[in-house]
RNA sequence: GGCCCGAUGGUCAAGGGGUCAAGACAUCGCCCUUUCACGGCGAAGACACGGGUUCGAUUCCCGUUCGGGUCACCA
């Protein structure tokens, strides 16, 4: 449009959770600005007093921070166009509304609120909008009724004929008949502006160049265009984003699910993986086929032309894969810290080899919340069964396992160098002397130590994590079980 | 229902008038391996349908179907 610096904003309402759809909007807003060296600002849209949730603003701050979406202006850091919280800008909206009333472009409406009926029956939903009843009221009479204290909202007069069109950067030119446009409420009877109104005022005053938001706003955009025109303001660029759907094909919304950033973190996903995931929901870089990108890389890669029109289904399978990629790429120190958090409480003060545990876990964990389940066999002595000692490939069965462990136990007991090399040497030596295959030894040992056929890491790693004394105790238990149960 | 938008494998998607229609996730198979996992290799799987335009349409146009959004003093 112009050579002006690009400026985008993220304008969430503080309703308690940050839905991943909202987060995706924030991400794209950030990327669109940053890819062109522009500014990204944060504005809190708290004009719905009924939905306001205490502490919700902090959730917004912490989420943006966790994702690395640093804003350039906002309630917490200020900026040239503050305040950045709409409830602190009420006088501003009221002034503009009155201006439109006095210019005959808006009018007070005394009709009772017709909030949406959630109980509307399917099929018979004959929803026709507001009938513009109060539009015909005599302005003087209206003024007197307001002066007398009668509650009223302010509605904008929409043109009754003609058409309005605008060009969206993603969806192209969209045209609607003006008669389809409702006389939208600008100011509610409680004096608060509607989203429709406050949004336009603030976006203009804050010099937002690109309005980036979900495509659910596409059909009300003509109304915003009418507002810009009424106010004599330049219409900004619009960038509507395809919706994110749930796996059932429905819009992924607050009403639908618990798909908030917070929930995903609780589930054990890394913020970086979530960001990477949602970056590719409705956007692709083009010829580049790589899909793992840091936020910094995305900043230089992102372009509006790559945004898709069709809604995208959010896939947890893909998120899982991305999370694995990020976990594996984590520096070992950082990863070890994560494992420590989960494992310390599980081991309850008992010593264990954290380094080894983190090492075997890093290539195997899908999400952080999997860790407790994966290491339970290390902290709890699980019940044994003869089937555990069966392994077709190694030609192992319970009786052979008993023999193997019987021979192995004294050797291990005599081993003071309880390390990977020490253990491997002992096992190899035992294998040679007893003429046993490695798979047989390892299989028996693993089952004896873990009481589980599937373990992260092998027998030796498990022995090291458990430590010498716990390992030996477990082997004793396994031996007596195998011998006792022998027929 | 009105209005708006959309449609490439199960999912995310590249591409675009002439291609054996990329790639990723998931699935399946093989290999590696002390199991699983990780890793490597490979397989199966798509242009919604009908009309045009064209020498030629998955690609452009129209219609149909299907999907989604929206019709609040919510955002």
Q: What integer is the average pLDDT?
A: 90
Largest sheet: 3 strands, antiparallel
How many strand elements? 11
Assign the structural class, choosing from mainly alpha, mainly beta, alpha/beta, alpha+beta, or little secondary structure: mainly alpha
Content of β-strand? 5-15%
Distance N terminus to C terminus? Answer: 86 Å
Helix content: 40-55%
Specify the number of helices: 18
Quaternary structure: single chain
Strand order of the largest sheet: 3-4-7
Secondary-structure element series: EHEHHEHEEEEHEHEEHHHEHHHHHHHHH
Uncertain segments: 117-126
Principal-axes geometry comes out as: elongated
Please compute the radius of gyration using only Cα atoms. Answer: 32 Å
């Amino acid at each position: 449009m112009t050579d002006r610096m690009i400026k985008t904003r993220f304008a969430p309402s503080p309703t308690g959770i940050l839905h991943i759809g909202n987060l995706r909007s924030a991400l794209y807003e950030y990327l669109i600005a940053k890819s062109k060296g522009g500014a990204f600002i944060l504005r809190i849209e708290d004009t719905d007093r009924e939905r306001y949730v205490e502490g919700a603003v902090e959730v917004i701050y912490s989420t943006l921070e966790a994702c690395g979406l640093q804003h350039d202006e906002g309630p917490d850091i200020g900026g040239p166009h503050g305040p950045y919280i709409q409830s602190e800008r009420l006088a501003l909206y009221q002034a503009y509304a009155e201006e439109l009333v006095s210019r005959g472009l808006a009018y007070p409406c005394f009709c009772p609120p017709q909030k949406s009926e959630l109980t509307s029956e399917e099929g018979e939903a004959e929803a026709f909008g507001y009938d513009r009843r109060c539009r015909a009221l005599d302005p003087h009479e209206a003024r007197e009724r307001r002066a007398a204290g009668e509650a009223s909202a302010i509605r904008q007069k929409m043109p009754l004929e003609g058409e309005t069109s605008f060009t969206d950067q993603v969806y192209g030119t969209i045209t609607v008949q003006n008669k389809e446009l409702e006389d939208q409420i600008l100011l509610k009877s409680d004096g608060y502006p509607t989203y429709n109104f406050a949004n336009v005022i603030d976006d203009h005053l804050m010099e937002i160049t690109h309005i980036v938001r979900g495509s659910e706003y596409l059909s009300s955009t003509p109304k915003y265009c009418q507002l810009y025109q009424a106010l004599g303001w330049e219409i900004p660029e619009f960038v509507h984003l395809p919706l994110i759907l749930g796996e059932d094909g429905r819009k992924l919304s607050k009403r639908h699910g618990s798909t908030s950033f917070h929930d995903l973190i609780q589930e054990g996903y890394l913020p970086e993986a979530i960001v990477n995931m949602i970056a590719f929901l409705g956007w692709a870089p083009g010829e580049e086929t790589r899909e793992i990108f840091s936020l910094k890389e995305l900043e230089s890669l992102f372009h509006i032309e790559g945004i898709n029109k069709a809604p995208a289904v959010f896939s947890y399978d893909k998120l899982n894969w991305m999370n694995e990629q990020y976990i594996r790429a984590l520096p070992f120190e950082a990863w070890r810290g994560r494992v420590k958090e989960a494992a310390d409480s599980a081991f309850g003060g008992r010593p264990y080899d954290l380094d080894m545990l983190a090492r075997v876990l890093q290539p195997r964990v899908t999400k952080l919340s999997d860790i407790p389940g994966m290491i339970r066999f290390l902290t709890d002595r699980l019940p044994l069964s003869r089937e555990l000692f069966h392994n077709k490939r190694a030609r192992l069965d319970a009786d052979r396992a008993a023999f193997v462990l019987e021979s192995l136990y004294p050797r291990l007991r005599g081993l003071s160098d309880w390390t990977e090399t020490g253990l491997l040497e002992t096992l190899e030596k035992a294998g040679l002397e007893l003429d046993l295959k490695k798979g047989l030894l390892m299989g028996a040992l693993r089952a004896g130590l873990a009481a589980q056929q599937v373990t992260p890491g092998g027998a030796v790693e498990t022995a090291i994590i458990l430590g010498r004394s716990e390992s030996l105790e477990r082997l004793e238990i396994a031996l007596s079980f195998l011998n006792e149960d022998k027929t």
